[in-house]
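Tokens in:
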């Protein structure tokens, strides 16, 4: 009986993994179940890892700091108070899953994978890099533009709390303090609101929570050095988003405009060349040689732009909603839940309107990290 219950729980957790990956075959469910079960078996309570004499001191200190962030998320951000991120697992690899994203040659709409009950998502994840690479190769052979990237964490939307919760992982525990806090806040936000078939709504909401929560954490706990580092990082992120947003808009105009497919391909190539030239100027100028985005620009394609839209497009609307709710986290989460119950077009239009509205007099404008 106990064994059957464990298997059932793991399969439910595997289904939750599919929320961020998409499932269509029994084989896919099997790898998801096996991968998540391995993760759960590796996880140990943070207190146990901290007390272990074999734990390296930097890891011990970071785990202790992570629990302060976890408590902060409950106390200040009104995020779920449960077992998630109270355990730690070393997976002995660089990513927990690898996502495959695909878009057509002359379009930015992501390919979606669908499964019963939980709806459709625009990316498919694997616990094995080799399996992800095989899917990416198949999609490329079919004519799709493909992006494959490692994911440091995923959310089971609270389902794993039955068996200890989503754990902290070696794939992100050593990040800077600001980035670690943001990730924890982002993943916990997925446990508050999730809408089937609306990746952009879900990810933009979680991204807004991580940005707003991350600023508050740093304001209360950040050192002067950490704040200076974050400010530099946020300036680069703002530049990156502005640059890629302009390029994305240009590509949309090309794909929707007149002309033959060959003409659109030529215009697309010119737009991508211009994008890379602008990046080179930015890197060699204001960024002082910072090369952290080199990989993204070297691989940039339609799938890359599709992913950026999912994580950023509606963030200004959610940040404006936070202001409209007087920066009260309970009210904000409640307003997002109410919004999530509306039809897709209606909730999207509402967020677009909020994001385009200038702030009221005397209302601070949120920064854009």
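Residues out:
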């Amino acid at each position: 009986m106990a064994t059957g219950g464990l298997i059932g729980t793991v399969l439910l957790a595997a289904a939750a993994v599919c929320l961020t990956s998409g499932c269509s075959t029994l084989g896919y469910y099997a790898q998801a179940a096996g991968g998540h079960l391995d993760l759960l078996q590796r996880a140990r309570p943070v207190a146990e890892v901290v007390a272990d004499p074999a734990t390296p001191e930097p890891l011990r200190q970071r785990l202790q700091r992570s629990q302060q962030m976890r408590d902060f998320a409950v106390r200040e951000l009104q995020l779920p108070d449960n077992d998630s991120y109270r355990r730690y697992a070393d997976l002995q690899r660089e990513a927990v899953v690898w996502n495959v994203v695909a878009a057509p040659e002359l379009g930015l709409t992501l390919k979606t994978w669908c499964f019963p009950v939980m709806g459709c998502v625009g990316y498919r994840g694997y616990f094995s890099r080799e399996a992800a690479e095989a899917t990416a190769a198949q999609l490329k052979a079919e004519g799709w533009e493909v992006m494959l990237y490692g994911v440091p964490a995923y959310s089971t939307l609270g389902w794993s709390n039955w068996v200890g919760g989503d754990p902290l992982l070696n794939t992100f525990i050593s990040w800077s303090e600001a980035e670690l806090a943001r990730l924890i806040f982002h993943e916990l936000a997925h446990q508050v609101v999730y809408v089937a078939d609306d990746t952009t709504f879900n990810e933009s909401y979680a991204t807004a929570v991580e940005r707003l929560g991350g600023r508050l954490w740093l304001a209360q706990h950040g050192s002067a050095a950490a704040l200076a580092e974050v400010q530099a990082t946020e300036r680069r992120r703002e530049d990156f988003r502005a640059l890629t947003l302009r390029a994305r808009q240009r590509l949309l105009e090309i794909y929707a405009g007149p002309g033959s497919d060959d003409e659109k391909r030529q215009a697309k190539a010119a737009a991508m060349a211009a994008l890379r030239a602008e990046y080179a100027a930015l890197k060699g100028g204001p960024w002082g040689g910072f090369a952290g985005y080199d990989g993204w620009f070297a691989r940039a394609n339609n799938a890359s732009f599709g992913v950026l839209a999912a994580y950023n497009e509606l963030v200004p609307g959610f940040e404006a909603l936070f202001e409209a709710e007087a920066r009260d986290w309970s009210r904000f989460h409640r307003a997002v839940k109410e919004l999530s119950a509306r039809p897709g077009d209606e909730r999207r239009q509402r967020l677009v309107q909020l994001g385009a509205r200038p702030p009221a007099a005397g209302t601070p404008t949120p920064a854009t990290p």
